[in-house]
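ok posting inputs for the tryptophan job
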Amino acid sequence: MTEQAEGKRVLSGMRPTGKLHLGHFHGALKNWARLQDGYECYYFVADWHALTTDYGDTGLFGNNVIDMVIDWLATGIDPARSSIFLQSALPEHAELHLLLSMTTPLSWLERVPSYKEQQNRLEGKSLDTYGFLGYPLLQAADILIYDAAFVPVGGDQAAHVELTREVARRFNHLHGAPVLTEPRALHTPVTKLPGLDGQKMSKSYNNSITLREDPGQVEKKIRTMPTDPARIRRSDPGDPAKCPVWQFHELYSDDETRQWVREGCTSAGIGCIDCKKPVIESVLAELEPIRKAAQPYVDNPGEVRDIILEGNEKARQTAGATMDRVRDAMGLSRW
Ligand code: TRP
Ligand code: SF4
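and the output
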């Protein structure tokens, strides 16, 4: 095992969905930034992964990659400490995926929970493709190629890390040497922030606030957020448990403010507009430094490109070393 593999490297990826929103910030990015203090971090744009489901919409890739990486940089992902790179710039991922596919039983992939779930969820799209079935194995290759010790995951990705461990174990067993490092899922506390309508925040549900949203727009979106439907008139009492605004208070407000909301809502002592004011202020205060930090990159996207190119080269060093070990273990000669 390489020295870096001694429990210190973290790897994670995100599909290039374009501008990120508050859900990404609280659910992943804040944590990614924090992890840089204790680990060597590899963060990559999973553009091949996006193709496993969105194989039809390829036109937006370029802008989406840059827009997303701007948001990474603006929320504190630091290219001096972390490797930021693009999956498709490293064909080594595809080679490892291919080689691992030789020994991975189909049943391991078919039983990954997200396989059936996503097929059901994205009903309009044909997902009976080879690429979609193989996507968790591609993810395994993404992780194993960097000897990652830890993968920060939300609930739905834990099964993929488990699969990665099994794939590594089988490979090492078959070839009689500890070539690949078994990663561990890193369950770190993340705060869940719902969308403006209380559902999961998602660009496609039209219920999100992007990290670089114009302040006036942010205010308007929160002002028009739905509240407890029982509060038709100002004099009707409400129940915070039935209101998405309350979930924002749970994330952003101190005890005193929350107490004020609970009392004011249930007694109709405050109106919903009053209640939303502190939320608007907190969100604006949170987003302002992000928008400011993003601006130089927005003005000069070439710099973002250079950061990615540099990250690609750093990643290539590590990936290349792993591939040499893998090819040797499999008896593939070097030419
Ligand atoms: N599968 C992840 C997603 O869709 C993205 C991803 C790809 C990833 N490869 C990874 C995450 C490796 C962690 C590690 O969100
Ligand atoms: Fe929601 Fe606040 Fe209105 Fe109660 S007062 S319904 S918590 S916005």
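notes: The chain is about 55% helix and 5% strand. Residues 114 and 121 are 10 Å apart (CA to CA).
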